[in-house]
Specification:
The protein is about 20% helix and about 40% strand. The protein is an alpha+beta fold. The chain has three domains: about 100 residues, Lipocalin (Beta Barrel), CATH 2.40.128; about 90 residues, Beta Barrel (Lipocalin), CATH 2.40.128.120; about 150 residues, Glutaredoxin (3-Layer(aba) Sandwich). The protein is globular and about 60 Å long.
Length: about 400
């Protein structure tokens, strides 16, 4: 009788305990709320109760950290601190995309078994935007204006491509031509980008939205021969300098500098970066693979991380997550925390004329002299430009190794 009572109590307890509902397997159309009238869409596919894939054109982002509590799901983005917290209901998710360190919350929802990224009113596009576009963001706005190069490919009303700037690219953009309206979006777990423009044959005029916290205008015109300034000439050493000097800590508290024995008589690549930066992630993937294949030749890499989180403990946690996810085997030092302000970053490296971009790469020869500074990074979304950069980088490193 006693054993029977215990069994009944256990069964009652177990039956009353709420079992979290898992995500349905399959495709979803998600949106982030940019403003009262505008949504930023992206697509993902749930492949198991604890994994999904986010799609941006040719990019596939694998997410392997999904947890449940009561009627809600938390989807933690890989590498970046951002996460989605949403309530699960029939065929729907409702919640927010959250970046705690920046106090940013963007309303989020997703609908199951819906594949179209953008809702299209006009299936037949009025224009084909394939090709190169000379672009200006924030035109006429002092200190905010900057040049870019739009690179697009259109098939039917489907458009893919990116905008290149002097500091990097806007990664994989995916969208449509809806009549005469160009719509492009990307969500990579850190940044949420939306571009909406009115196209008139050889010109376009639109607005770029970054999440729900920033927007700026842009104008563009077709120009097949337009090129941005040379990335190797934008950042340079001030007069009187030919070397870089620094001392920053690693995760163990060890102070590291270029004077350490492990870097002497080596070609060294310094990577000015941040764990929050998608272009830095693209660059880190390339550098990590390059280092793995070439470290026995006498080349070393050092990452200098500039982090916006408020404590060194949080910064090193993010650095560790990046290194683990990408497989980085070179040291990543903490150069700054609490801010990613580029003027403050330049104060940490006062021999530079400025820190214009995250990332920036400084290539140093075996004697310790700076031989090249490359501003920004043209990632895989830029296609031929990415291949060109990789070939140029490999050739230049081999020249320095053979000196």
């Amino acid at each position: 009788m006693k054993n029977t009572f215990i069994l009944v109590v256990v069964l009652i307890f177990c039956s009353c305990k709420e079992v979290p509902e898992a995500l349905q397997l399959g495709t979803y159309r998600a949106t982030l709320k940019v403003n009262d009238t505008l949504d930023l869409p992206f697509n993902f596919e749930v492949t198991s109760s604890t994994s999904l894939k986010i799609f941006n054109a040719d990019e596939i982002i694998s997410v392997e950290d999904i947890t449940y509590e009561n009627d809600s799901v938390k989807i933690q983005m890989p590498v970046f601190e951002g996460y989605i917290k949403a309530k699960i209901s029939k065929n729907m998710l409702n919640g927010s995309f959250i970046k705690e360190s920046l106090n940013r919350i963007v309303p989020f929802k997703a609908e199951f078994n819906k594949e179209n990224r953008f809702e299209v009113a006009n299936e037949t596009p009025q224009y084909d935007v394939s090709g190169n576009w000379e672009t200006v963001f924030s035109q006429g706005i002092e200190e905010d204006e900057y040049a870019a190069k739009g690179i697009f490919k259109q098939t039917g009303n489907v458009v893919t491509g990116t905008f290149r700037t002097t500091t990097g690219d806007y990664r994989y953009l995916d969208g449509v031509m809806d009549g005469n309206i160009l719509k492009l979006s990307a969500f990579d777990g850190s940044h949420a980008f939306l571009f909406v423009a009115i196209v008139k044959d050889s010109t376009m005029e639109g607005i770029f939205y970054s999440g729900n916290h920033f927007k700026e205008p842009f104008v563009a015109k077709r120009n097949a021969t337009f090129e941005l300034p040379d990335e190797n000439e934008l950042t340079f050493l001030k007069e009187g300098y030919d070397r870089i000097d620094f001392t920053f800590p690693d995760a163990d508290g060890k102070m590291v500098s270029l004077n350490d024995d492990e870097f002497k008589n080596k070609v060294v690549v310094l990577q000015i970066m941040g764990t929050w930066c998608p272009n830095c992630l693209d660059e880190s993937k390339f550098y990590s693979e390059y280092y793995k294949n070439n470290k026995n030749k006498g080349v070393e890499f050092i990452g200098l991380a500039f982090e916006y989180v408020k404590s060194p403990e949080a910064a090193f946690k993010n650095i560790s997550r990046l290194k683990e996810h990408v497989g980085i085997n070179y040291p990543v030092l903490l150069a700054q925390y609490g801010s990613t302000n580029k003027k403050l970053a330049q104060e940490k490296l006062p021999m530079l004329n400025h820190v214009l971009s995250y990332p920036t790469s400084i290539i140093i020869d075996k004697t310790g002299k700076v031989r090249k500074i490359h501003t920004g990074f043209n990632g895989p979304a830029t296609g031929e430009k990415y291949i060109e950069f990789k070939n140029e980088f490999d050739s230049f490193i081999n020249v320095l190794l053979n000196e």
